[in-house]
Amino acid sequence: MKCIIVEDEFIAREELKYFIKNFSNIEIAGEFEDGIEVLKFLQNNKIDVIFLDINIGSVDGIVIAKNLSHFSEKPYIVFITAYKEHAVEAFEIEAFDYILKPYEESRIKSMLKKLELSYNSKNGELHTITNRINLFKNDKIIVTNIDDIYYCEAKDRETCVLTKNEEYIVKMPISEFYETLSKEMFFKCHRSYIVNLTKIKEIIPWFNNTYNLRLKDIPKEIPVSRSNVKNFKQIMNI
């Protein structure tokens, strides 16, 4: 996974380099202070991530990001800026993240972890072993059996993964995480929930011809939304 840093403040650039080198496996392929030089570089070089300041020389970061949106293989864009007011525009052009200066170590580490998870998922590397998955808790990688997952719940732009006794966070949206799971075992029954079909103990009829799912071993009921009822009934032979 290769990145470039586009930042004209030396101290901020060095600090970001420190975090990338010490808390990720991302390779730094270049550093730039000028927007024109960035665009020239990108014409002949493929990168996976661009850490992009907004206020830089020649061409500002928003313009560079808009140019990147036309690439056939668009890199992840992480804005690094001291200004909050560009956040809405940044996410309108599908920025991966928006980091404010001065940097907070926990925020940077979280972002880097989320980047690597998303990249590995996109490239089919999230499941290093067929029946296992790497989950994160307290900055540790926990190798977990797929069978141990009971359900997953959306938490803003992250996913909470629940086993019988533990709770983990995956730094990607639930719809993206769902694509990494076996569809024979897991079903996205609601926009905010994924359920392990093997953990269902009871199927309870609910309002508007929907269902609630009661799981084994834990006191949790998972809703099945109306839009997913038909597929759920087919899967469960109801």
From TrEMBL:
Keyword field contains Hydrolase: no
Gene Ontology MF, one: DNA binding
UniProt superkingdom: Bacteria
Domain HTH LytTR-type: 133-238
Annotated protein name in UniProt: Stage 0 sporulation protein A homolog
Organism encoding this protein: Clostridium acidisoli DSM 12555
PANTHER family recorded: STAGE 0 SPORULATION PROTEIN A HOMOLOG (PTHR37299:SF1), TRANSCRIPTIONAL REGULATOR-RELATED (PTHR37299)
Keywords, alphabetical: Phosphoprotein
Pfam families with a match to the protein in the record: LytTR (PF04397), Response_reg (PF00072)
Ranges for domain Response regulatory: 2-116
Alphabetized PROSITE patterns for the sequence: HTH_LYTTR (PS50930), RESPONSE_REGULATORY (PS50110)
